[in-house]
Amino acid sequence: MNAKLANRVATIIITSFAYLIILILAGLLGYILYNGLSVIDWDFVTSPPESLSAGGGIGPQLFNSFYLLILTMLITTPLGLGAGIYLSQYAPKNKLTNGIRTSIEVLSSLPSIVVGLFGLLIFVTYTGWGYSLISGALALAVFNLPLMVRITEEAIETVPKEQIEASLALGISKWKTITHVILPAAIPGILTGTILASGRVFGEAAALLFTAGMSSPALDFTSMDITSSSHPLNPFRPAETLAVHIWKVNTEGLIPDAREVADGASAILVLSVLVFNITARWFGSWIYRRITSHS
Amino acid sequence: MSKQKWENTLGRTLTLICAAILLITAISITYFIGSKGLATFFKNDVSIGEFLTGTQWNPDGEPGKFGAFPFIFGSFVVTFLAVAIAAPLSIGAAIYMTEIKPRFGKKVLKPVIELLVGIPSVVYGFIGLSVLVPFIRNTFDDTMGFSILAGGIVLSVMIIPTITSLAADALEAVPQDLRNASLALGATRWQTIWRVVLRTALPGILTAMVLGMSRAFGEALAVQMVIGNTTALPTSILDPTNTLTSGITANMGNTIAGTVANNALWSMSLLLLIMSFVFILLIRLIGKKKVM
Lengths: 295, 292
Description:
heterodimer, A: globular, B: two-stranded antiparallel sheet
């Protein structure tokens, strides 16, 4: 009767919603990869972009994205580890701890454009660095830090209590226990989380428009002078990343092949994020198997 | 002091400094955005009432007009549209993953959906621009395609993975005993889902929706690419409009720091900041089961 009919109707509706979502998302991925892969070739990935004519590549942008990711992680990882250790091992129940936890919540829910504006105010204007890799990396660090802290805390939580207590019972100091017992055991979780976080950093654009900038100087990979703005590793040069480039070619529309460039760049961006995710999953289960088979 | 004690103190202090940096960053963001944003009203004497409710936006005019209502309205409309599209689909998919085909859901669907959470938002914007906007232009008369509808759909696709994976977590956390008890009483699967599982998971599902909403509200580039960026109040869902984030994105580079036109953009970002506080508050209230 009615209950049975309702059951059947509801199941059909829910199933169709699920399939609709799968269809949309699969179509999205397929569209990006299909259109992008026909554009991508060695020349596209390595040559610099054209400013007004067709046929430009995305070489410097791709380099900038990776370099910025490394700089960001260099800043975020130690800070996130430290804060995560403090919150999971030391933090007493008091106002300060509450304040820190609320800050994490606030920072992780900030729109990235607001983080970018803060970066514009402090790292770009106040310090006088201008649009630069370092400003971009610091803004991305603000954006990524709360995630890093959460990853560290969660990884530390999975370390068995007995292991920590055994170490302390042996008379090993708290700090030695943290660095020699807890951290090694938590490293797999932390690494997996870090790789996932890298994917997020890699695709971020809004926080970079007004910090790392929307232009990239011509890079000279043979340059030896790191203070020169054409030296690829100079952290004080402006650097447009891949994600920002996709936005710029579409909104400015100065090059005739904006569509193709954006197609190729989107595919590379999506592929990179997929690689980050799959690596993280594979690495996580690989390390899990190694640890469990030895114990 | 012994070496051990010294080491302990040093370790504790170092990690405390790292944690304190988070606190300092959050406070300074609030302070700097707050003071820049309020300067429009206290230094440039723009009235707060005009800013929040005025519909004329012409910062370069003589005298300048600073009615940001079209931006605020645009932000809320696209956000609600996005959640209205995404929430039923996502919750449906989450139910499918956890209640109807749990093994397929856990093994295949959930990892894939989590993977999609990581797709950069510019990519969503670009697909919106190259597929959705032309589609709307060709389907309906008298429209360029850049519209509230386009913005809402792009945002909804962007937040579907977020809401789905969080809602699935909430549904998974419902104890199996509750389902068994309900089924043992002769309830159908749908009755069990509707009256037991969804009720129990409601706080988690609401949290998922609020997080999706906050992501949509704060998204800048994906919206900016498809919304049309006009400052007139829209009269239909097919009209172009503007949002707080897209207004900031499009104009920040063209205004000079310190001018009223520039400060007004900071006031918009202050509004974004306040809204993200509101979303946090909402999530906390849901956690305490006060909003239901």
